[in-house]
Amino acid sequence: MKILLYGINYSPELTGIGKYSGEMARWFAEQGHEVRVVTAPPYYPEWKVRPGFDSRRFMKSTEDGVTVIRCPLYVPAKPSALKRILHLVSFSLSSSLAMLAQLRWKPDLVMLVVPTLFCSPQALLVAKLTGAKSVLHIQDYEVDALFGLGIARGGMLKRFAFAVERTVMRAFDRVTTISSGMLQRARQKGVAPEDLLFFPNWSEVARFRDIDRSPSLLERLDVNLSKRVLLYSGNIGEKQGLETVIEAAERLQHRHDLVFLIVGEGAGKARLLDLVQQKRLDNVVFGPLQPYEDLPSLLASADCHLVIQKRGAADAVLPSKLTNILAVGGNALITADPDTSLGLLCSEHPGIATLVEPESVAALITGIEQALAMPSPNVVATEYARDFLDKDKILKRVLAEV
Predict the structure, then answer these.
(1) 71 and 154, same structural domain?
(2) Cα dist. 43→12, 14, 33, 341, 393 in Å?
(3) What is the pTM (predicted TM-score) of this model?
(4) Are residues 176 and 305 in the same domain?
């Protein structure tokens, strides 16, 4: 089968959507399919194009058996609502040329990974003109996130954006997304149930099994080995609301046995660094994004994993980091309401994680104590990962059903 994957994020990005798109494309190629990817140069979560790539020109290469076409785009150093929109539109415009060039190749399957919906017309056009099946894979509901998190405002603009989103989603042959709550949201947006497919993010479960704490890695990150580690790892952006973590650290300064370790990059990192400096906190340590090969050891070295989101992000975005936390048997503290996908996960699988109210420092501190008291490794988490998050099982099923 000829598979055309289309999306703004792709390997070698190590966090979020790019990681999963890269693993998916490589897996398709390993199964003997011919795979092409139209994407952008890697820039996330640093919001800076990485060395060796160019945001001003097209680049074509073969990576792990996949043909990758990277398109120019605007990458703002300090993303705001307007700059984010210009960023997405710039990729949509430049990638149109690369997508039209695939008409001669005649793919059998065109899969658009969202964000961004700005690329929907190109994906639908190529699929229609070549007779390919069109699939919309939703990693984030970008319209919901924009308005739910207050990044964008406006009654008329909001109604127009949601109307366009509904129209676009219903135009695809299949719509897939990564959680039960996000599937429910797709139904509410008018997608027919028979056109929907559950396509969760996965873990390379075998890589994260039976991993020990790594003193050498913690020392490299300047973490005192005598302390219990409260880890946040991943993107440091708007939808996480990590200011509550800094406030919790301030209230827990008397707990000399605890250290907050924040590992990652993103648009909100500078603000957090300033907050820690202003408050003169010595129980918060920042570390750079770690190589993927070190991720199992990093996760296994934490006593509590902070899976933090703002309330407005619930079921609009889902933290991809959770899959590997569960696979390594980590004890996760999740901030989400009970009726969200993450809340339902905790109620349906008692003991898998600790669930607390989002955007509450008091609830966060209570949850930390509860998570630290949980057995380690977390057998409920590892069994769930084994049964439901294995990459091969998920991708085989989805490819057979789209």
Answers:
(1) yes
(2) 9, 10, 27, 29, 30
(3) 0.86
(4) no
